[in-house]
């Protein structure tokens, strides 16, 4: 079965969100919106969107962070009967003209996690761009592989069964550390991944929720945790890959 939807974590992106939902619905994708304790103005926009056909709303009473919101959305997607979920940001940074290629790849390889690796335009903040390279190195170390091309791009299609099996068995970072940690942990489990280029620009409504000191501290802590986890798992990871 291949029955995809889109999961959109939302925290105060009321200007860009309707355009994102319109594009996804125009491509035939049902949408699961996750209100991560947004402002009343943004919540009202989500209420209006959720009145449309095949647009669902999960409302979190307390802000959970991007990762927490995505996890809530993935669980709701499975409850609604979907088999796959596209994670997409609410701020309009992802170019949804790439969506047909992602859906086609997911349909061709339903067991695979379809991941975007970003092609940036001049709008990308240079500090954020350079910082990604340090994360790339740690991800290659912690996954014992060079196969993860970009762990921070939140434009990907998850097969829900193996993804939720992982989320049910281990605690994963709930904020900006989520996107990287879940890929490394799935790689440890030999999860197939398929990579596609995708255009990224920053952002339509000019609002970033990346907290420089706190989120960088969380990401550093996550890399350290994964490193020691990798050391414990290294024999099993390498044995699984040797077996194919």
Q: Which class in CATH terms?
A: Alpha Beta
The CATH superfamily appears as Spore Coat Polysaccharide Biosynthesis Protein SpsA, Chain A
List the secondary-structure elements in sequence, H or E: EHEHEHEHEHEHHEH
Q: Please, how many helices?
A: 8
Number of domains: 1
Shape: globular
Class from helix and strand fractions:
alpha/beta
Low-confidence stretches: none
What characterizes the major β-sheet? Answer: 7 strands, mixed
Helix content: 40-55%
How many beta strands in the DSSP annotation? 7
Instruction: Give the N-to-C terminal Cα separation.
Output: 25 Å
Tell me what you see in this structure.
- The chain is of the alpha/beta class and 244 residues long.
- It has a single domain (4-243), classed as Spore Coat Polysaccharide Biosynthesis Protein SpsA, Chain A.
- The protein has helices spanning 17-26, 40-50, 65-79, 99-108, 126-143, 160-167, 178-188, 212-243, and strands at residues 4-10, 31-36, 55-60, 84-87, 113-120, 156-159, 193-200.
- The model has no long low-confidence stretch (mean pLDDT 89).
Structure characteristics:
244 residues; alpha/beta; Spore Coat Polysaccharide Biosynthesis Protein SpsA, Chain A; seven-stranded mixed sheet; globular
Summarize the SSE layout with pairings.
Elements: E1 4-10, H1 17-26, E2 31-36, H2 40-50, E3 55-60, H3 65-79, E4 84-87, H4 99-108, E5 113-120, H5 126-143, E6 156-159, H6 160-167, H7 178-188, E7 193-200, H8 212-243
Parallel strand pairs: 1-2, 1-4, 2-3, 5-7
Antiparallel strand pairs: 4-6, 5-6
